[in-house]
């Protein structure tokens, strides 16, 4: 039940470029790896995100990307 409430909040935070765990702006996160079209960003709370450099969106990293 909680997932149904939390998911939209996470989507909203990511759309604003903020970590879904601690709310930190992801542009302040540590860039782990960078390629032509995406960057892997590690937040200080340990969550990993993928920043799509083309459409400037963020998403949670998949398990095989961590
Ligand atoms: Zn965080």
Please explain how this structure is put together.
The protein has about 70 residues and is an alpha+beta fold. It binds zinc ion. The site of zinc ion has 8 residues, from loops. Zinc ion (ZN) binds next to loops.
How would you summarize what this structure contains?
It is built from one helix and four strands. By secondary structure, it is an alpha+beta fold.
Unreliable stretches: none
Global Rg: 12 Å
Largest beta-sheet details: 4 strands, antiparallel
Number of strands: 4
Mean pLDDT: 92
Strand content: 25-35%
Number of helices: 1
Question: By helix and strand content, what is the structural category?
Answer: alpha+beta
Spatial order of the strands forming the largest sheet: 1-2-3-4
The SSE order reads HEEEE
Helix content: 10-25%
Distance linking N and C termini: 27 Å
Shape: globular
The hetero molecules present are:
zinc ion
Topology:
Blueprint: H1 2-15, E1 30-34, E2 38-42, E3 48-52, E4 57-60
Antiparallel strand pairs: 1-2, 2-3, 3-4
The structure holds zinc ion.
Residues 19, 21-22, 24, 43-45, 47 line the site of zinc ion.
Which terms summarize this structure?
66 residues, alpha+beta, four-stranded antiparallel sheet, globular, binds zinc ion
């Amino acid at each position: 039940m909680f997932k149904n409430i939390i998911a939209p909040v996470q989507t909203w935070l990511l759309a604003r470029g903020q970590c879904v765990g601690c709310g930190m702006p992801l542009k302040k996160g540590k860039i782990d790896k960078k390629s032509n079209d995406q960057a892997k960003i590690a937040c200080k709370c340990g969550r990993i995100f993928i920043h799509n450099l083309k459409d400037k969106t963020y998403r949670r990293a998949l398990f095989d990307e961590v």
